[in-house]
């Protein structure tokens, strides 16, 4: 269960929940973790699974790196027999029509279909035909027959003629080409939020934010499906319908992103997914908004037991420091 950027470290990705392009069919990466080995705050080495230290095992799968240094992680694999994926790059000026079609398509889709859309102005160093253009990048992941996928994509394709179309049968080793995230290390300023439901007023805020001069990428990702199934781990906000993520390369204009999340707060409530918890201005992050109150209380209890002296302060915390 890799993420949209498969070069991201598998351990930190899984500890924070792990949201990948196949999540609507297979759930969170944390749902598949079966055993961990870690160095605890007192220097001990501990193997943890469902039958050994169940509270700690619960917290490690979704609560991030707040409980120890993970030295081993064992996870189950998922079977992928047919993958139809890629991206449609559409003129950014169709944002309103595209998001309307996106909302209709994600209203009652099969779990096999995962969609997200990102709005970005590509830099001058991007390859043609993307170079310097403001585009909407519709990311598509479908586990099944390409003809079924194309039937569901038809309303989205009808919005505008693609500038570039990379949707095709893929090997699992090409899964990173769906989102086509940058792979080179670089400074970045990012932020995240959740949207519990599709709400036209919230979508209007998104549309007001995007444009040729917007100094960051903005992505809306559809969740639900297997991501919403109940599991005995600490992953928060399973029942949310969409996530929103912004990222500026190489880390510029954080105040613009901060202002955007303030405008979105009436719908997001300041909540986010753990792996997407960040403050655009790089002030210390607080992941308390990544969990429902009952999960947050239990995480704090487990953390107090296993790291009372706050040795693992390098992790994104869910308690004030």
Characterize this entry briefly:
The protein has 321 residues and is of the alpha+beta class. 25% of the residues lie in helices and 21% in strands.
Extract low-pLDDT stretches: none
Percentage of helical residues?
10-25%
> What is the strand content?
15-25%
Which word captures the global form? globular
End-to-end gap: 32 Å
Work out the helix count: 8
The counted number of beta strands is 11
Mean pLDDT value? 93
- Helix and strand pattern: HHEEHEEHEEHEEEHEEHH
Characterize the largest beta sheet: strand count, sense, and whether it forms a barrel: 8 strands, antiparallel
Radius of gyration: 20 Å
SS-derived structural category: alpha+beta
Structure report:
There is one protein chain. With 321 residues, the chain is an alpha+beta fold. It is 25% helix and 21% strand. It contains eight helices and eleven strands. The strands form two sheets. Strands 4, 5, 6, 7, 8, 9, 10 and 11 form an eight-stranded antiparallel β-sheet that branches. The protein has a three-stranded antiparallel β-sheet with strand order 2-1-3, with helices on one face. A hairpin with a 5-residue loop joins strand 1 (33-39) and strand 2.
């Amino acid at each position: 269960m890799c993420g949209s950027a498969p070069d991201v470290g598998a351990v930190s990705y899984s500890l924070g929940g792990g949201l990948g392009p196949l999540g609507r069919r297979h759930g969170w990466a944390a749902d598949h973790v079966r055993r961990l080995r870690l160095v605890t705050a007192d220097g001990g080495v501990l193997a943890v699974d469902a039958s050994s230290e169940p509270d700690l095992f619960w917290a490690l799968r979704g609560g991030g790196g707040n409980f120890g240094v993970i030295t081993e992680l064992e996870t189950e694999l998922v079977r992928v027999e047919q993958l139809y994926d890629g991206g449609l790059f559409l003129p950014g000026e169709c944002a309103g029509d595209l998001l309307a079609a996106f909302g209709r398509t994600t209203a009652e889709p099969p779990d096999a279909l995962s969609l997200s859309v990102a709005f970005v102005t590509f830099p001058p160093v991007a390859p043609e035909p993307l170079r310097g253009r403001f585009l909407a990048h519709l990311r598509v992941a479908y586990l099944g027959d390409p003809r079924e996928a194309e039937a569901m994509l038809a309303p989205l394709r009808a919005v505008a003629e693609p500038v570039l179309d990379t949707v095709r049968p893929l090997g699992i080793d090409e899964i990173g080409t769906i989102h086509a995230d940058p792979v080179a290390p670089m400074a970045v300023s990012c932020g995240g939020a959740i949207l519990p439901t599709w709400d036209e007023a919230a979508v209007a805020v998104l549309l007001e934010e995007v444009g040729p001069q917007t100094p960051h990428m903005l992505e809306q990702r559809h969740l639900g499906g297997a991501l919403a199934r109940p599991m005995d781990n600490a992953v928060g906000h399973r029942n949310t319908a969409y996530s929103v993520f912004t990222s500026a390369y190489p880390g510029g204009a954080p105040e613009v992103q901060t202002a955007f999340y303030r405008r979105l707060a009436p719908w997001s409530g300041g909540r986010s997914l753990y792996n997407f918890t960040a403050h655009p201005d790089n002030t210390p992050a607080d992941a308390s908004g990544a969990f429902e109150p009952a999960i947050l209380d239990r995480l704090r209890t487990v953390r107090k037991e296993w790291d009372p002296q706050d040795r693992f302060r390098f992790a994104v915390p869910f308690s004030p420091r």
